[in-house]
Amino acid sequence: MKTFSSRRVALGVLLIAVGTGAYFMLAGGPAADKPAAKAGGKPATPVVVTQVTTRTMPVTIRAIGTIQALATVSVRSRVDGQIMETAFTEGQTVAKGDPLFHIDPRPFQARLREAEANLARDRANLEKAQGDFQRYQSLSGKGFSSQQKFEEARAAVNSLSATIRAGQAAVDLAKLNLEFTTIRAPLDGRTGSVLVQAGNLVKADDQQALVVINQVNPILAALSVPEGHLAEIKRRLAEGSLAVEAAVPDSNRPPNRGRVVFINNAVDTQTGTILLKAEFDNTDGFLTPGQFVRVVIEMDSIANTAVVPERAVQSGQKGNYVFVVNPADMTVQPRPVVLGPSIDDFVAIGDALKPGDTVVTDGQLRLFKGAKVTFKSDGAKKAKGEKKTGDAAPAAAGAAGKAGG
């Protein structure tokens, strides 16, 4: 009986405790002071934003080009002989006519003296033959000499006259060969490595070049562009020059500006591209043949078009889009955009957005249609910098922040 009474007492105490707790909760006792659970779904997503701006965007064609020398000459000897001296240093910039190599001139000087001596002998013989011809001509007219003697004298004069002309040609050739013993630069340009050192024997028109000279000012860039641009490129060239910029990758130097000077006469059927060449000034020799450059052909420009940073553009199954922030309720909506030309990390978006619209540039991975957002500190500062004080978006951001708290 005692055990049963104890159980009844404990059960009564428990019921009293439960009733007391329910009373305090309904009456606003200590349990009501606890914070209520948040309502309204997921919390706002912090993002970085910027505003849509306008600028003039150039319509360009971009390609990778290869620098080529305007002209390349392999210098060879035009006479046989021994190289006595190299008159330049490797890599030197030379002007047309500058001496490059000196070949031993003594054999050619001797040949010139021999040719001049033979010419002098033949001139003396011609002078004697002309005197004989005049005498036989006078005697034949008076009947004191036969006609045969007269004709032989005339033939001797004609023969020696031809010999004189041949002797003069031999002298001219000897002088020319003597001149060829000094090998000169055939054009302005930069020399390469010396391929034949002093002391070596060379032959006329040998396959081994002595040095290779590249004309590098001006200089060319060869590039291939899709054939779809060919008609527009031809139209622009017919109207005037077509401006081009060439920039060396990983270089802080401003791009070199030039113009298109050549369009190939056939499209490459394997790649569907057409070869172009652009010419650039290269007075400081910065561009080097064989170097790769980023080439931009300036086709046209679009004035006052809406642009956003490229990082704001997202790609989906239906195309490109950006997240636009509604400042009234701080929610985002994806809006499709058609991309235009891009430059300096900005891309044109046409009429999809208006200047002043706020778009998300960072934090898009956590966003969806209708998602609430809040501006990160740097994004908020940027938005305040782009909008004047009292703008709706920062104010809405502050209100959303208070509501979220």
Can you give keywords for this protein?
disordered C terminus; alpha+beta; conserved putative lor/sdh protein from methanococcus maripaludis s2 fold; 6-stranded mixed β-sheet; 405 residues; 6-stranded antiparallel beta barrel; elongated; 4 domains; Elongation Factor Tu (Ef-tu), domain 3
Overall spatial form: elongated
| Total tally of structural domains | 4
Order of helices and strands: HEEEEEHHEEEEHEEEEEEEEEEEHH
Oligomer: single chain
Total count of strands? 20
Cα-atom radius of gyration:
47 Å
For this structure, the CATH topology of the largest domain is: conserved putative lor/sdh protein from methanococcus maripaludis s2 fold
Q: Report, as a whole number of angstroms, the end-to-end distance.
A: 59 Å
Structural class: alpha+beta
- From the coordinates shown, what is the CATH architecture of the largest domain? Beta Barrel
- State the name of the first-level CATH class of the largest domain: Mainly Beta
Describe this protein's structure:
- With 405 residues, the chain is α+β, with helices and mostly antiparallel strands.
- It has four domains: 45-55 and 304-404, conserved putative lor/sdh protein from methanococcus maripaludis s2 fold; 61-69 and 216-302, Elongation Factor Tu (Ef-tu), domain 3, CATH 2.40.30; 77-98 and 184-208, no CATH class; 105-180, Helix Hairpins (Orthogonal Bundle).
- The protein has six helices and 20 strands.
- It has helices at 2-26, 106-142, 147-179, 230-239, 377-386, 392-404, and strands at residues 45-51, 53-75, 81-86, 93-94, 99-103, 182-184, 189-191, 201-202, 211-226, 243-247, 256-263, 273-280, 292-309, 314-316, 319-326, 331-336, 342-343, 346-348, 358-362, 373-375.
- The strands form three sheets. Strands 1, 14, 15, 16, 19 and 20 form a six-stranded mixed beta sheet that branches. Strands 2-9-12-11-10-13 form a six-stranded antiparallel β-barrel.
- A hairpin with a 2-residue loop joins strand 14 and strand 15.
- Helix 2 (106-142) packs antiparallel against helix 3 (147-179).
